[in-house]
């Protein structure tokens, strides 16, 4: 990959790592402090909010990034483009938040819902796509670092009792609002709002609708599962959402490898540079698989231990949720490569939408069957989603084969990395069994660190022995970095 792509990938990875600090360091604290029932009430409100948020965003982050990137060298066009998008976003935010307000007035009197209404109302201030379009990753990184540190301090100071759910909600929601405000203030240094006609503002809806649909297909999968679980009495919704947050934080680090290649892949395809497209696709996707697949396998094996360490006895039932969800993330990784690097990069959004809707219909049907049979749990809804995503993978690969049979994204490396990591993880587990459930938190933590280190070491050794291309590439890069440090 080129130097610019590597630089952007590193910046995105650093930013993602900063965002991972919250669930890693504060997640166990809040899970152990807050009452599970109150936490479940918060997660029910968050589930409803997550259904309205995509409509308040209206695909603008994706659409805006593309539009701003194309005109950033022309100040007049830049101001006009941003102004049109921003004014449209104000209208959408106010309309969606008004509908949300009516809904919660009829549904609930909980303060948490009204706090989330405030965040929905200020969605129009989300302008991070401008900073990304200008590649202001330094600002984004430092801003997030400052806000995350403030968030940690506030949580530790004000969330001290099991009943402090309102304080937790205020801090969490306030973090999102202030994050948007800081970004808006920053971009106004180099962007000016100008007058736009109503026609120019609202004609954008035509281009935004396809992006809205494509950007929010998760509503038929993860968000739909949350909606079904939120209707149930008990803590299944909290188990599901905590596990999802942990897994998303961990796997999103490697997702940066895929995201930063999309503009270059789109350029190669539009230019007709098939060989360059194919080389970048294969190299980047194999690097992604090299890291993400063993991570998912490890999370499957460590599910019970991780959740016991994370939340204690209160969340011991979430261990199986972690393991099953981690298996689903293997499928999600394969889908991400096919979606972002091939179907989206080659302009096949309409095919993607059809595929996602077919899978979504299967997922909805499965959840209704579970509801009818009274078998609706966090594990069961994940299994229905696994079934639906298997259909998505099959349809994606069939459509990719029609575009170009060499673009198919499931290759022998996928099976090689899964097989080797599974054998390695089970072998290490056999040699070093899990500590008993009465072990101290420190001993559990140290065991997990030792287990991960040994698995990584054996995984790398095996791939080195078989001369795996990605392994040799990564080792060469590490060797180059060490040589530079030594020469200095």
TrEMBL record:
Source domain of life: Bacteria
Stretches that traverse the bilayer: 9-26, 46-65, 86-106, 112-130, 137-159, 165-187, 199-221, 241-266, 287-307, 319-343, 355-373, 379-396, 417-435, 447-475
Subcellular compartments: Cell membrane
Entries under InterPro entries matching the protein: Poly_Biosynth_Transport (IPR050833), Polysacc_synth (IPR002797)
Main location: membrane
Topological type in the membrane: Multi-pass membrane protein
Keywords: Cell membrane, Membrane, Transmembrane, Transmembrane helix
A cellular component annotation (GO) from this entry: plasma membrane
PANTHER family from the UniProt entry: O-ANTIGEN TRANSPORTER-RELATED, PST FAMILY PREDICTED COLANIC ACID TRANSPORTER
Protein's name in the database: Polysaccharide biosynthesis protein
The organism of origin for this protein: Treponema vincentii ATCC 35580
């Amino acid at each position: 990959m080129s130097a610019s792509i590597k630089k952007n990938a590193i910046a995105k990875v650093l930013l993602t790592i900063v965002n991972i600090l919250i669930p890693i360091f504060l997640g166990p604290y809040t899970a152990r402090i807050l009452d599970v029932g109150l936490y479940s009430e918060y997660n029910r409100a968050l589930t409803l909010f997550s259904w309205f948020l995509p409509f308040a965003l209206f695909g603008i982050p994706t659409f805006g990034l593309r539009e701003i990137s194309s005109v950033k060298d022309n100040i007049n066009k830049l101001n006009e483009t941003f102004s049109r998008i921003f004014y449209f976003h104000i209208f959408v935010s106010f309309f969606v938040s008004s509908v949300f307000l009516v809904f919660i007035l009829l549904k609930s009197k909980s303060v948490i819902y009204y706090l989330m209404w405030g965040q929905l109302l200020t969605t129009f201030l989300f302008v991070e796509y401008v900073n990304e379009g200008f590649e202001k990753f330094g600002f984004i990184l430092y801003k997030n670092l400052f806000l995350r540190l403030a968030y940690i301090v506030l949580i530790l100071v004000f969330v001290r009792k099991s009943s402090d759910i309102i304080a937790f909600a205020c801090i969490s929601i306030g973090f999102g609002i202030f994050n948007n405000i800081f970004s808006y203030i920053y971009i106004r240094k180099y962007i000016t709002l100008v007058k736009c006609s109503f026609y120019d503002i609202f004609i954008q809806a035509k281009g935004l609708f396809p992006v809205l649909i494509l950007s929010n297909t998760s509503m038929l999968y993860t968000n739909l599962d949350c909606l079904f679980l939120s209707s149930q009495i008990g803590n299944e919704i909290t188990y599901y959402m905590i596990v999802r947050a942990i897994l998303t934080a961990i796997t999103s680090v490697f997702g940066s490898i895929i995201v930063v290649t999309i503009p270059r892949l789109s350029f190669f395809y539009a230019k007709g540079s098939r060989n360059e497209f194919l080389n970048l696709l294969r190299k980047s996707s194999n690097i992604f698989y090299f890291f993400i697949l063993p991570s998912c396998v490890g999370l499957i094996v460590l599910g019970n231990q991780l959740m016991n360490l994370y939340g204690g006895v209160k969340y011991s039932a979430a261990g199986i949720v972690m393991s099953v969800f981690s298996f689903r993330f293997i499928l999600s990784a394969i889908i991400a490569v096919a979606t972002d690097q091939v179907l989206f990069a080659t302009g096949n959004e309409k095919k993607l939408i059809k595929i996602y809707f077919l899978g979504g219909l299967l997922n909805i049907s499965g959840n209704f069957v579970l509801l009818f049979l009274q078998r609706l749990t966090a594990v069961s809804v994940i299994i229905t989603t696994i079934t639906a995503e298997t259909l998505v993978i099959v349809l994606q690969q069939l459509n990719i084969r029609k575009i170009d049979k060499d673009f198919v994204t499931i290759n022998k490396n996928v099976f090689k990395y899964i097989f080797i990591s599974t054998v390695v993880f089970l072998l290490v587990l056999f040699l070093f069994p899990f500590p008993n459930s009465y072990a101290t938190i420190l001993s559990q933590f140290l065991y997990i660190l030792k287990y991960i280190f040994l698995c990584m070491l054996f995984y790398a050794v095996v791939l080195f022995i078989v001369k795996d291309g990605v392994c040799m590439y990564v080792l060469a890069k590490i060797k180059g970095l060490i040589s530079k440090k030594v020469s200095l």
